[in-house]
Amino acid sequence: MKHRIVVLGAGYAGAHAAGRLARRLHSDDTEITLVNADPDFVERVRLHQLAAGQDLRHRALRDVYAGTGVTVRPARVTAVDVDRRTVELVDQHGADEIGYDTLVYALGSTVADHGVPGVAEHAFHVAGRPGALRLRERLHDLARGATVLVVGGGLTGIEAATELAESRPDLDVAIAARGGIGDWLSDKARRHLRGVFDRLGITGYEHTDITRVDETGVFTGDAGRIPAQVTVWTAGFATHPIAAATTLEVADTGQIVVDNTMRSVSHPDVYAVGDAGIAQGAGGKPLRMSCASGIPMAWQAADAIAGRLTGRTVPRFPLGYFLQCVSLGRHDGIIQFVTFDDQARSSAITGRPAARIKEFVCAGAAWSIAHPTVMLPSLRRHVAAAVEAEPVPATP
């Protein structure tokens, strides 16, 4: 009987995990199923571009994994029972349930409203393709001089604000942050960022606590108000609630707690990668939710699964960072060099060279997913008999 591996989610982490597993394990005794709500691979790091009116390349998952041994199942995950080893799905034919022997949980994250009233009802976001398309449609209807407020001074907020300001110079774009905007960057990078904001006419509101959102703008902690025809919420990400509804050990964030091989500390047949897992990086710090974390987590999980199933040594490699790439529209950017534990160094590349590097990184990540069979030499190995016969634990 084949060992069933189910991968939930085909974002950067899940897609890389599925492709790497297909290269590590022999199809004669393993079957890999990739479940994703969208039939296409979505470049999440480009969704601010989609919202700004640009079209993204179409990559159907069935085409991506054709001939790899990975079965793509377009469906929405509604529940996971880690004690019965089952996943509940809903697709175009209705509800269904599938079983697994090993689960790779990579359902990612969505927008976090932090309990601020009005965000769900009145704010737009770029945390997923439906949200980005909804924002795109709303922006298309805006008249000259309309105000767009981006809430959140992190990477997503900065990229969204600059992309919108560059693509729609007829709009009045502003950005508001609870702390400083880009305050983690080096002095050189912050100076460049301020210069780009000035050039694009972006108004910045720093140290501004947003307490409520309505259809005409936002209210701040000091009883002030920032008017806006459109509010774009980029103030962080939250995990989907499915994992927290199981018996998996999860952190306060709802992320699955994993060891250094991305294996659940409570359920050894479950691995979590990308935003869905909370893993320790350099210095014992949790890895941040990002593509830069998710892809290495996927590599580690896939290699660990393959090692354990084939009876070979489980490889372990430290996870950390080297740089942060920030796009500032299509022709400007920042490449911030960082320490392995993600602290900004004094050096940074800015301007058009940085934009080219960022584009190369984004294109490379998408290309590696679109070509899963050429990223690694073929090392397909058979599942060890002892592992194949491993019994399902009794339900508590």
Automatic annotation (TrEMBL):
Q: Which family does the entry's similarity section mention?
A: Belongs to the NADH dehydrogenase family.
For the keyword ATP-binding, the answer is no
> Mind listing the UniProt keywords for this protein, alphabetically?
FAD, Flavoprotein, Oxidoreductase
What Pfam families does its record include? Pyr_redox_2
The prosthetic group or cofactor this protein requires is: FAD
Q: What domain of life does the native source organism fall in? A: Bacteria
**InterPro entries reported in the protein's UniProt record:** FAD/NAD-bd_sf, FAD/NAD-binding_dom, NADH-Q_oxidoreductase
Quote the Gene3D superfamilies the UniProt record gives: 3.50.50.100
The name this protein carries in UniProt is: Oxidoreductase
Family matches, as PANTHER family = 64 KDA MITOCHONDRIAL NADH DEHYDROGENASE (EUROFUNG), APOPTOSIS-INDUCING FACTOR 1
State the organism named in the record.
Answer: Plantactinospora mayteni
The UniProt record lists the FAD/NAD(P)-binding domain at 4-302
